[in-house]
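This week, think about what follows.
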Amino acid sequence: MNLRVLFAISMAVLCTTAVFAQNPVTADSPFQVKYASNVGPTSPSDSDSVFNLTNTGATGGNICVNVYTFSPDEQLISCCSCVVTPNALVSLSAKSDLINNTLTPAVPSSIVVKLVSTAGGACNAATPGALATGLAAWGTTIHAGSGGSWATTETAFTPATLSAAEYTRITSLCGFIQSNGSGYGICNSCRSGGLGASKKKL
C-alpha cells in the first residue's frame, strides 16, 4: 500500500474518531425541570396535569426522586420524595398530589416542578443525599385554546444544571416546610403505575 493511501486512511479514521468525541451521548441528568399550566381553579374540572417517572437502572439500584413544586412567584409550595425501583413506573398528579396541600393558602394556576434524583435509601427531600443518574420523567400540561377549548400536551422533563446554591436553597426550604409547616406543604408520594394525559381529580 502506498504511503499516500495509508495517510488518507489514517486521516479518515482520525476525523471519524474526532467527530464522535465531540458528540458524546448525553448522560441523563439527576436534576430535571418542567412546568404545568392551568392546574388551579381556572382549569377544566375533569382535567389534570400528570407526571410519570421511571428508573432506567443506570445506578444499578433504587433511586429517590425528590419533588419540589414552586408557584409562579418562586415560592416552594410543596415537597416530597419517593423510592423508584429499576424499571418501575410511578406517577404524580398536579391536583391530587402536588397542590392539594400547599404551604400557602392560595392555590396557584400554574407550577414549576423540579425533580432531583438521588441514591436510594431513606428518601427525604430535605436531606436527599448523593445525586444519582437513572431518572427519566414525562409530564403533561393543559393549554387554553380558542372558543373555550382545552388541549393537553405531554413532553419529557428538561435536564438542567443543578448549582450548589440551588441545591442548598430547595433542600433548606423543604426542611423549613417539614419543621414549621404544621403538615402543610408535604405533597403526596408517588403511586404505582402511570397516569394518562387527562384524568378526573381524585
Q: What stands out?
A: The first strand starts at residue 31 and ends at 37.
